[in-house]
Amino acid sequence: MLCAFLFLGILLRRTDCFSVTVPSSPVSVVRGAMALLSCEFEPDHNISNLVITWQLQESPQVVHSFYYGKDQLDRQSSHYFNRTSLNYKELAKGNASLSIANMGLKDAGNYLCIVTNGKGTDRGVVQLVYAAFYSEPRLSILLKSTNVTVQYEMEGYPRPEVMWLGSAGQNLTDHLEVSSASDGGLYYLKSSYVTQSPAINVTFTLKNPAVHQDLQRHVNLSYDGNMSSSTSVVVLSIMCIFLLFSTGLLLWLYCRDKRR
Ligand SMILES: *[C@@H]1O[C@H](CO)[C@@H](O)[C@H](O)[C@H]1NC(C)=O
Ligand SMILES: *[C@@H]1O[C@H](CO)[C@@H](O)[C@H](O)[C@H]1NC(C)=O
Ligand SMILES: *[C@@H]1O[C@H](CO)[C@@H](O)[C@H](O)[C@H]1NC(C)=O
Ligand SMILES: *[C@@H]1O[C@H](CO)[C@@H](O)[C@H](O)[C@H]1NC(C)=O
Ligand SMILES: *[C@@H]1O[C@H](CO)[C@@H](O)[C@H](O)[C@H]1NC(C)=O
Ligand SMILES: *[C@@H]1O[C@H](CO)[C@@H](O)[C@H](O)[C@H]1NC(C)=O
Ligand SMILES: *[C@@H]1O[C@H](CO)[C@@H](O)[C@H](O)[C@H]1NC(C)=O
């Protein structure tokens, strides 16, 4: 539509259809990594006419700006201080992609790329999504009277899909606790499964689609009632022999001292 108008405009003025190209799908970046926000435009032979402004869509905060042939960071938001950079060699090729180092939860949002040069002006929006891989789940097994609790703890982002499966692959009821993301930008997750059965054969699954993470951990706990009782018998016998022997030794030492 805009282009059609501009095409008409060509008859009156020599204006080309200038447009900015940004990724159409959200850009997912993991915690601590470098985010690359792509933004391309049709270059102009003269770079001194180029004005690039990266800012947040929701607020007027300046993320990065470039004009008069160099970075202009006086009005940059302190949140982005020393973390952003443009590739100067790429600017002449029509590439205004911005790198943001050390991605954190607060960096998630919609970023506007506004480009102006001798050929025109346009803007595009890049959606930046924050994610973090879930850490290796830490297993604990708690015994309380007749209950056995199998529990996994881990940290990551965002909220994952968690399931406990039985030996036949059936969905088991579980208990999930998620504490809100701290300044560190990670959720703390505690998932548990309670059973009265002493033999456990379950699978814990976690899916974090934002980073295509798919975890599966098997817990296989079995005990043999006969073995545990025979073990006790052996332990008891050893203890009796030891007791008899030490008593004998003490008596002998005592008698020897008495005789002196
Ligand atoms: C580039 O543009 C600036 C300002 O518009 C002008 O002063 C300069 O002469 C131009 N340079 C070239 C090589 O066209
Ligand atoms: C900016 O970052 C560089 C490394 O990326 C570091 O060496 C420098 O000390 C930082 N400057 C400030 C003022 O934090
Ligand atoms: C644009 O610049 C970035 C950063 O230097 C680079 O990674 C990317 O490949 C460039 N894009 C194109 C299309 O060349
Ligand atoms: C054992 O688990 C059941 C649910 O499975 C629960 O109602 C009960 O309170 C638990 N008992 C103890 C002692 O934790
Ligand atoms: C334990 O569960 C797995 C599937 O998770 C199954 O293949 C296996 O046969 C089960 N073992 C027993 C002893 O039930
Ligand atoms: C498993 O059960 C939970 C509730 O206990 C439910 O929310 C979930 O959708 C079920 N998943 C599947 C694959 O059946
Ligand atoms: C779990 O343990 C039982 C008994 O030791 C064994 O037969 C079974 O194959 C194990 N299952 C898995 C999934 O390891």
UniProtKB/TrEMBL annotation:
<dbReference type="InterPro" id="IPR050504">
    <property type="entry name" value="IgSF_BTN/MOG"/>
</dbReference>
<dbReference type="InterPro" id="IPR013783">
    <property type="entry name" value="Ig-like_fold"/>
</dbReference>
<keyword id="KW-0325">Glycoprotein</keyword>
<dbReference type="InterPro" id="IPR003599">
    <property type="entry name" value="Ig_sub"/>
</dbReference>
<keyword id="KW-0812">Transmembrane</keyword>
<keyword id="KW-1133">Transmembrane helix</keyword>
<feature type="transmembrane region" description="Helical">
    <location>
        <begin position="233"/>
        <end position="255"/>
    </location>
</feature>
<dbReference type="InterPro" id="IPR053896">
    <property type="entry name" value="BTN3A2-like_Ig-C"/>
</dbReference>
<protein>
    <recommendedName>
        <fullName>Ig-like domain-containing protein</fullName>
    </recommendedName>
</protein>
<dbReference type="InterPro" id="IPR007110">
    <property type="entry name" value="Ig-like_dom"/>
</dbReference>
<dbReference type="GO" id="GO:0005102">
    <property type="term" value="F:signaling receptor binding"/>
</dbReference>
<dbReference type="GO" id="GO:1903037">
    <property type="term" value="P:regulation of leukocyte cell-cell adhesion"/>
</dbReference>
<feature type="domain" description="Ig-like">
    <location>
        <begin position="18"/>
        <end position="126"/>
    </location>
</feature>
<dbReference type="GO" id="GO:0050863">
    <property type="term" value="P:regulation of T cell activation"/>
</dbReference>
<dbReference type="InterPro" id="IPR013106">
    <property type="entry name" value="Ig_V-set"/>
</dbReference>
<dbReference type="GO" id="GO:0009897">
    <property type="term" value="C:external side of plasma membrane"/>
</dbReference>
<dbReference type="Pfam" id="PF22705">
    <property type="entry name" value="C2-set_3"/>
</dbReference>
<feature type="signal peptide">
    <location>
        <begin position="1"/>
        <end position="17"/>
    </location>
</feature>
<keyword id="KW-1015">Disulfide bond</keyword>
<dbReference type="InterPro" id="IPR036179">
    <property type="entry name" value="Ig-like_dom_sf"/>
</dbReference>
<keyword id="KW-0393">Immunoglobulin domain</keyword>
<dbReference type="Pfam" id="PF07686">
    <property type="entry name" value="V-set"/>
</dbReference>
<keyword id="KW-0472">Membrane</keyword>
<dbReference type="GO" id="GO:0050852">
    <property type="term" value="P:T cell receptor signaling pathway"/>
</dbReference>
<keyword id="KW-0732">Signal</keyword>
<dbReference type="GO" id="GO:0001817">
    <property type="term" value="P:regulation of cytokine production"/>
</dbReference>
